[in-house]
What we know:
Distance between the termini: 27 Å
Order of helices and strands: EHHHHHEEHEHEHEEH
Oligomer: single chain
Shape: globular
Amino acid sequence: MPSNTDIIVAFDLYGTLLSTESxxxxxxxxxxxxxxxxxxxxxxxxQLEYTWRLNSMNLYTPFSTxxxxxxxxxxxxxxxxxxxDAIDSLMQSYDSLSTFPDVGPALDTLSSLSSSSSSSSxxTTSDNSAQRITPVIFSNGTTAMLSASLTxxxxxxxxxxxxxxxxxxxxxxxxxxHPDVYKHLAQVVGKDEGEMRDMWLVxxxxxxxxxxxxxxxxxxxxxxxxxxxxxxxxxxxxxxPTVVVRGLGEVVDAVRGHAxxxxxx
Length: 265
């Protein structure tokens, strides 16, 4: 288990490490490339929308079920359907999504910094104390979905050993960006609520970034498209990422920079 002096770096899974758009390849075997991309985009939109609606209603349905029902919704919007065996095949494919192109090199770097006996690399803080950087997975996915992705995704599975924990929101039966899920993350890694600032979220999803910032965490937003931060829900610095990175390869340097006093906050 990480020590309470570790800097926890929590990597979101879907939309950050794994590309949910990569499911379009499987959909294209049924509908062709253009329609497959459209269905995949809508599938992801409804998947997230369902989680937010359930949070608002104080209800919970496992993310695996949401993923399947949102697929049916996306297909219905296109006036399409698939037989149950094809749906099952797509759900299996969701457990082996491809990573974004920048993920492998970034995790290679993280692996090279990690000792053979630990999933952590060490950095020195501004007061010359040493702190380890400990990566964990933190996701809306169920425990079974996280485990499946880390064992079945051809491009992610080689890095499964890097992550000290696979943390699912399922245990608290809320979804991001509910405050309870970030507090659950802290509890699992041995941090109390006064130490939220010692944890980082790395996510490509703005709603996740804002949720983490609202409870006092630092956050790196992965802006792969280079569009810049436009989310205006929460005013001020608390409604913005601590840092914006263009790819995962910039994350470790960003975390180190803040630990060494080269960043804000």
